[in-house]
Amino acid sequence: MRIRFGLAGALLLATIPLVAQTASRIPRMPDGKPNLNGIWQTMNTANWDLQTHGPAMAPVVAMGAQAATPPGIGVVEGNEIPYLPDAAKIKEANYAKRLALDPETKCYLPGVPRATYMPYPFQILQSAQSLMIAYEYAGAARNINMGKPKEPPTDSWMGWSNGHWEGDTLVVDVIGLNDSTWFDRAGDFHSDSLHVVERYTPVSADTIQYQATIDDPKTFSRPWKISMPLYRHLEKNLQLMEFKCVEMTEELLYGHLRKEPRKQQ
Amino acid sequence: MSYRSFAIVSALALTVAIASAQVPAKTWTPSRTADGQPDLQGTWTNATLTPLQRPPELAGKEFFTEEEQAAFEKKRLQQNDVESVDDGKRGPADLARRAYNGAWFDRGSHGVNTRRTSLVVEPSDGRIPPMTPEGKKKFDEAHANFAAHPADGPENRPLSERCILFPNAGPPMLPEPYNNNYQIVQSPGFVTIMAEMVHDVRVVPLDGRPHLPSNIRQWKGDSRGRWEGNTLVIDTTNFAYNDKSRFGVAYDGFTDQNLHVTERFTRTGPKTIIYRATVDDPTIYSKPWTIETTLSKREEPIYEYACHEGNYGMFGILSGERAQEKTAAAKAK
Description:
The complex is a heterodimer.
Chain A: H1 2-25, E1 38-41, H2 85-96, H3 98-101, H4 114-117, E2 122-126, E3 131-135, E4 141-145, E5 160-166, E6 169-175, E7 195-204, E8 207-215, E9 224-232, H5 246-254
Chain B: H1 3-19, E1 42-45, H2 66-80, H3 92-98, E2 120-122, H4 133-148, E3 181-187, E4 190-195, E5 200-205, E6 222-228, E7 231-237, E8 260-269, E9 272-280, E10 289-298, H5 312-332
């Protein structure tokens, strides 16, 4: 017992300077706030399914392994999404028709939090008074209001973001989200009562711990959380590329209205 | 540069700003961001009543007097208010004209504050210069193609109708009838310009890195920035080309993949940035031309403009065209 206690004490002692070290190691702005500038991306399969999932066949046979669902460990804390009974049925129906119904298929704006864990990079642009997030997917963008919180004039795809700092954590309160986005390709969805609170906590020079609390009383029996690290891209001269995916979806959306069928390429 | 020297520079800048508050705009010195860039941040608009090219009736007149500008603004506002122009006709053309009434438009209520008579400032006649023979050929082909195939498929429509790109986003950033709003954020090493329509973000690196390989083409091109004194200079190449104008539905300002745009942002006061953009496209134009607009400060935040998600217009355009073809074919029988 004494030995264990001693070990625990030693561990505790070792932990204190480590925390202090972490806090001093994260990049900071001239005003002392954490500097979140950079190109970031997750390294998980949350966009396919927030919950732990095995592999699945591609929804289009011709795509074979190219578009198969990669298996992955989930990002939902506790792995359970607490759907209300009727909502659980809708999720199942969504899953069955996921290729046709997922807004990502049509290049629609991804909403929050999905924009964060789409398999594309995003860039945080932070100055002393402003904070903007530019996402490569669909050229989605968010302006985080760091001033006095404001109310959105109406609902939108990417919602309305009011941000503030809690110590070294950027907390973004996202309201005014419409009911048209999904959380993933597995049909996880929400209503227009969605309220998301995101927390961006830098834990090293090149990692941010991201957590989002999802509250939607019309769809879920209680608030639930997802969490995952964001990793900094370290490639030299990396830049967000233009991915205006509208062009990739015009045949899908309007092909039946063409004068002549599109020539196969 | 150390933070200490930043502080000295900022303090100097502030002193100059205070001292020059009462003197002409030219000597106004912008404050600096923490990393030493002249500060262009905030929400801005380039809405204006001034036309891109100088109208023929104003040939030789580069600037209005104050009275002339006021009269011009009054006339333009009346012309733009479709509700007030009622010729009593209610045909299809009139309906199309009335589809967008005064509630839609956001051209502001003034011309540019330099009182210029056109946005084109070079050449000095305020007109886009003549096309090269090759440029004219390309332009005529594009025109003929659009006339013969107005809506065979979505690709026949202008980029704006497809929700791909509006002239606001540019570059060059040209005012449109509405949503002429921008937000500029300056983070260390970057200037970022977000155009409200269609949530187009240009993240411009300032570190002198090379452009993307020339085979990579983007609708907004590939932008690189640098500071020349207090002026931000952005150089953009690698434009995509699809025979539709980047400048809107009209074919004014037709350009191709050889387009090279040089933009210059100079903050001349707390509420003003003078924006200049030189359009150089040697295959299309006999010489480069330059436009100038004013970016005026706004205090309101930018709201999301989601275009593609609600693009019922494209369904309407294509299915309308198919219906017309069907009717024409039935008549021909």
